[in-house]
């Protein structure tokens, strides 16, 4: 809905006060959505999925992790593609609104910010269409090998140790591990670049706020 709203606003006509205010609202709302999804759904959410603990309702004792590695992988496989799709659309809409608000010729500062937003949207799109599908495919193949070896049903830390031990004697698992980490590394680098671009624009906007 947000990208569609951006297109409607920017095609609405000239730079009247109402249209300008709406474009500013679209820019801020779409950017805030992308930044929030990156921080909370992907970064913080990814850590929570990995470090999932159950708290006893009768005490504050922390029990062992109860989210198996394979379940965590399937959950991430549903959440992350949706996040990257939303991020790519919202960041592109934010860049479109920013370009509309700052008509060419753009000063160097505006050109840099527009480039930052476009790069962030591009890397999110690359993550959605290229890196994440390859990572998920490698993850599923690794899960198949782990299930055949009777591992993968425990929590993250225990599962990692089981995987490392099994990979010493299973060349198939070792090969799938290497394939997964190569794909995952590309996805992680793309995420970091996108997050850095959004953070740069966040700092730029923060510097313009007068409190």
Automatic annotation (TrEMBL):
The keyword Transmembrane is assigned to this record: yes
Span of domain TMEM205-like: 29-144
Signal peptide location: 1-16
Question: Could you name the domain of life of the organism this protein comes from?
Answer: Eukaryota
Q: Which UniProt keywords apply?
A: Membrane, Signal, Transmembrane, Transmembrane helix
Give the residue spans that cross the bilayer.
33-55, 79-101, 113-132, 178-199
Q: What InterPro entries does UniProt report for this protein, alphabetically?
A: TMEM205-like (IPR025423), Xanthocillin_Biosynth-Assoc (IPR053009)
Give a GO cellular-component term. membrane
Sorted alphabetically, which Pfam families does this protein's record hold? DUF4149
Annotated compartments: Membrane
**UniProt protein name:** TMEM205-like domain-containing protein
Which species is this UniProt entry from?
A: Oryza glumipatula
The organism that produces this protein has a lineage beginning with: Eukaryota, Viridiplantae, Streptophyta, Embryophyta, Tracheophyta
């Amino acid at each position: 809905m947000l990208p569609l709203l951006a297109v409607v606003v920017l095609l609405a006509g000239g730079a009247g006060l109402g249209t300008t205010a709406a474009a500013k609202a679209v820019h801020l709302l779409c950017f805030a959505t992308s930044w929030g999804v990156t921080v909370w759904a992907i970064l913080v959410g990814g850590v929570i999925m990995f470090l999932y603990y159950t708290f006893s309702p009768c005490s504050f004792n922390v029990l062992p992790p109860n989210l198996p590695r394979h379940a965590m992988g399937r959950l991430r496989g549903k959440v992350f593609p949706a996040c990257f799709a939303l991020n790519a659309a919202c960041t592109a809409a934010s860049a479109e609104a920013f370009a509309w608000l700052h008509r060419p010729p753009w000063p160097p500062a505006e050109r840099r910010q527009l480039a930052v937003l476009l790069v962030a949207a591009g890397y999110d799109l690359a993550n959605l269409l290229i890196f994440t599908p390859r990572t998920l495919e490698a993850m599923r193949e690794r899960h198949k090998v782990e299930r055949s070896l009777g591992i993968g049903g425990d929590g993250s830390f225990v599962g990692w140790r089981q995987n490392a031990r099994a990979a010493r004697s299973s060349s198939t698992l070792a090969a799938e591990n290497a394939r997964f980490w190569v794909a995952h590394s590309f996805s992680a680098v793309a995420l970091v670049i996108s997050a850095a671009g959004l953070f740069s624009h966040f700092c730029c906007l923060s510097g313009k706020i007068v409190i």
